[in-house]
Amino acid sequence: MAVETAESLASRLALQQRAFLRDGPPSFTQRRDNLKRLAHAVKACADQLVQAVSADFGQRSRHETLMADIFPVIAAARHARFHLWRWMRPQRVWPGLELAPSRARLLPQPLGVVGIVSPWNYPINLALAPLVAALAAGNRAMIKPSELTPRTAETLAEMLGGLFPEEEVAVVLGGADIGAAFCELPFDHLLFTGSTEVGRKVLAATAQNLTPVTLELGGKSPCVIAPDADLTQAAARIAIGKLLNAGQTCIAPDYVLLPAGKTQDFVRHFTEAATALYPSLLANPDYTSIVSDAHYARLAGLIEDARQGGAEIVVIDPAREQPPPTSRKLAPTLILNPGDHLRSMQEEVFGPILPVLDYQSFDAALDFINARPRPLALYYFGPEDLNLRKLLARTRAGGVTVNETISHFIAENLPFGGVGPSGMGAYHGEAGFRAFSHAKPVLLQSRLNSRILLRPPYGKVTEMLLRFMLRG
Ligand code: NAD
């Protein structure tokens, strides 16, 4: 594959832009066909993709790749195919009494060429689910996958290359430098998924062209356990969500807030649950490795920082294997009541490490959350009562799952995105279609209408009409 340069990127974009203008928006049938072929190809390449992701991670659970990387893409394409007719239909709107008897429509139109930048943690899902939305809305797309999962990126490039001509869907391979050059291209829309830190650079780069952006970023997603929650169930469900992909999930529970006095019970239940899920770590095909040596070192550093800072550390290693750093299997680790100054409370954990903090009152837990950057996800465990209503009303977060973790991501009818530092805009299902469409307002004027009376020379009729228009 040729090495990309700023010039080669610009010419690949120009090719797609010319084709978009030449061919116009694809029909309903073409879009449905694109989505169907994409879903079929992902299914047909599933084994290859599973192997590529696992090779990139060192070890990635086959089931987790199928569940969390491949299923969401196929489900998104199925959902879009099913609802596309309704989404594409022009929407009639009432133009208002003053413009009667004209008619008005909102005409959904593709934006043109969409850029998609994806991260490594779910390298199939986060490259292809935005592509589903872009194609459903009738766009062409260029995708820049993460350099940390190169085999997956190459497999995706090969699969998409066999499915779509270069002028319809293109894959750009390369590292952060290519990512930076990619975001400087004058796309009609850019969807970036990645860290908040890089998201800032992306927003600055896209500002030069006034390219509209959807930013799917990260952050610290809290998990609040109410005083009257079923602690056993809460700990078990948090363990599943936290240890999926070894915690390398943007909406993984980042830290737990629980009532004072319940920490030791939580530790016991979480340890039991994690042990049942992963009785061993090293040769366990279900337990995913940390993606790179640098990320492993960063996570080991978070634990060491907490240890030196005097926090109590609980390592869950049931088979006592003490996985060596070379395996990049990091044992599930709890950090109990870490101080705010510790790195594990300052940065997104993004690994199988879970800080556990206690609160004196539920209101204090909400204050704790509100004193920090608005998270991508928020989890609540407890009855659907006043505490839940308070939490929903008083906190701001990208999305919420109650009495479970992660699941709101899967519901195609729920827009997925962050708020403030955890992101801007949303996609999935209809929200994705709308994000990649322009709802073009069209007013159809009739032969006789009130505008005829609102023109110079202004006189009594205009005065009378203005009195009506300014009636308050
Ligand atoms: P990252 O920001 O380091 O990289 C993401 C992508 O951006 C990669 O393709 C990379 O090559 C590219 N890139 C790097 N520098 C760039 C630059 N200057 N300009 C443009 N592109 C550049 O993120 P990551 O480490 O791959 O992923 C982890 C982060 O992503 C976490 O913070 C996680 O929370 C977040 N994330 C968010 C979501 C979501 O849906 N909101 C999903 C998954 C991951």
From TrEMBL:
Keywords associated with the record: NAD, Oxidoreductase
Matches recorded under InterPro entries: Ald_DH/histidinol_DH (IPR016161), Ald_DH_C (IPR016163), Ald_DH_CS_CYS (IPR016160), Ald_DH_CS_GLU (IPR029510), Ald_DH_N (IPR016162), Aldehyde_DH_dom (IPR015590), Aldehyde_DH_NAD(P) (IPR012394)
Stored CDD domains: ALDH_CALDH_CalB
Active site: E216, C250
Example of a GO MF term: aldehyde dehydrogenase (NAD+) activity
Aldehyde dehydrogenase domain segment(s): 27-441
Protein name: Aldehyde dehydrogenase
Family recorded in the similarity comment: Belongs to the aldehyde dehydrogenase family.
One biological process term in Gene Ontology: aldehyde metabolic process
One GO cellular component term noted in the UniProt record for this chain: cytoplasm
